[in-house]
Design brief:
By secondary structure, the chain is an alpha/beta fold. It has 3 domains: 2-165, Beta Polymerase, domain 2 (2-Layer Sandwich); 168-306, NAD(P)-binding Rossmann-like Domain (Rossmann fold); 390-431, no CATH class. The protein has helices at 15-22, 28-33, 66-80, 84-90, 97-107, 120-133, 139-158, 168-180, 195-206, 222-227, 237-243, 261-267, 301-306, 313-338, 340-363, 368-394, 398-408, 418-430; strands spanning 2-9, 39-47, 50-57, 92-95, 187-191, 211-215, 230-231, 246-249, 275-279, 296-299. Helix 11 crosses helix 12, helix 15 packs antiparallel against helix 16 (368-394) and helix 15 (340-363) crosses helix 18. The longest helix has 27 residues, at 368-394.
């Protein structure tokens, strides 16, 4: 088994390519799992700054994951309506322990535009839940993502990255501050009612905005009612969008732009006050043509990325050390899991010999003390052997121990390994 990750993120991928990948919805993880027989499971993490897929790839019959990854990229290219070669040039790969190192850094917010952002941890958790609902996860992927969540929590609790409640939304609002002036007097229109809208609302209120209206493109009025906001109906949207000092878009409705240059320009005819449009949507919610409208300034993900501040290096280094240590521990734990089949074999062999000897001793008239002594001896023997196997595995030498067990422990000819495989799966699930 090998873990492999495929990543396209804001540092190396254009906003246009991320937009194409972001429109993939539905059972993405199960789609990618079905791309090749060697892919046992997949988890997809898609945010406004990245598209990532994590795979559990079998190492037999082909020890290389490349055929499986080529098939996954072909499926991804078809879903995103992108040329295969372009997808291949866009994504980056990691394998082995590099996968844990990458995901743990992502979950901790160290790979985000706003370093230390607090929204990504929830997105990582929901990615696992979505894949699980699709039946696309495996025990190694479950362990990987659970450890990522634990690592994110450790970084937040142990470093100053967790003090400021950072997020991409807050960074956007901070960058907008110099353009808006006094938020208390600004008229704000929020477009969207999902999780990102809730984060946007919190950021707007944190800087003092009070005149906040909300428009749901899907017609959902629960958000406005729950948050005590003025709802904007579809019939009034163009007028309200034109009159707002600040428009924040973060909707997942992708059939058309929330703001088109033609309609917005017509609605703003005769309005001379400046307007700031913050587009947090992925794919983008705002027509790029808005930039040419008089008095309208657009702050989108590309602009935010360029102006993202450089955080304190000491704090980041501290967080990266936590991530690195967690990844090393995860690797050691995975290596221990890899000797599980040999552990099953040696345990089964010793238990078989033990029961045969107990039966033989009973036939000769031995009592309970003899049986207890035999069980104690076999337990001590197994404990020593298995502890040595785990220790060697954690140090990277588990294969040598597995080979030794395979040499000295006889297996019946043509033995059915189904029970052994189930025991291995059980051991991994407990891992």
């Amino acid at each position: 088994m090998m873990l492999v990750s495929m990543s396209a993120h804001q540092r190396t991928t254009s906003l246009e390519d991320l937009e194409r990948l972001s429109v993939i919805d539905g059972a993405v993880a199960s789609e990618l799992t079905g791309a090749h027989d060697a892919i046992r499971g997949a988890v997809v993490l898609a945010t406004c700054n990245r598209f990532e897929a994590y795979f559990d790839v079998a190492d037999a019959p082909d020890p290389s994951p490349l055929p499986a990854m080529d098939a996954a990229m072909e499926r991804l290219a078809a879903l995103a309506r992108m040329p295969f070669r372009h997808v291949r040039e866009t994504v980056e790969f990691a394998h082995g322990n590099g996968v844990a190192q990458h995901l743990f850094a992502v979950a901790a917010g160290l790979d985000s535009v706003a370093v230390g952002e607090d929204e990504i941890a929830g997105q990582v958790k929901r990615a696992l839940e979505t894949a699980r609902s699709e039946g696309a996860t495996t025990a190694p992927l479950e362990h990987l993502f659970q450890r990522a969540t634990e690592t994110s929590r450790a970084v937040k609790n142990s470093t100053r990255l967790g003090e400021s409640g950072r997020s991409l939304v807050r960074l956007a609002v901070e960058l907008a501050g110099s353009r808006v002036g006094e938020w208390e007097g600004a008229r704000v229109l929020l477009v969207g009612t999902g999780r990102y809208a809730a984060a946007s609302l919190a950021a707007l209120r944190a800087v003092g905005a009070t005149d906040i209206r909300v428009h749901s493109r899907s017609g959902n009025g629960k958000f406005a009612k729950r948050e005590h906001l003025v709802p904007v109906a579809a019939a009034d949207f163009a007028r309200e969008a034109a009159a707002a000092d600040v428009v924040v878009t973060c909707t997942t409705t992708t059939d058309t732009y929330a703001l088109s240059a033609e309609r917005h320009g017509a609605a703003r005819a005769g309005i001379e006050t400046a307007q700031l449009v913050i587009d947090l949507g992925m794919p983008r919610n705002v027509d790029p043509g808005l930039r040419s409208l008089p008095g309208v300034e657009v702050l989108d993900l590309d602009t935010i990325r360029v102006h993202a501040p450089i955080d304190e290096f000491a704090t980041i280094d501290e967080a990266r050390l936590i991530v690195q240590t967690a990844a090393q521990r995860h690797a050691a734990a995975r290596r221990v899991h890899e000797v599980a089949p040999a552990v099953v074999e040696v345990r089964g062999y010793v238990h078989g010999v033990l029961e045969a000897e107990i039966a033989r001793a009973r036939a000769r008239g031995a009592g309970d003390e003899t049986e207890a002594a035999l069980r104690h001896f076999s337990g001590a023997l197994l404990h020593g052997l298995i502890a040595q196997g785990h220790s060697l595995a954690a140090a990277g030498s588990g294969a040598a121990w597995t080979d030794a067990i395979g040499t000295v422990v006889p297996r019946p000819h043509g033995a059915d390994t189904r029970a052994d495989e189930q025991a291995v799966d059980d051991a991994r699930d407990l891992g």
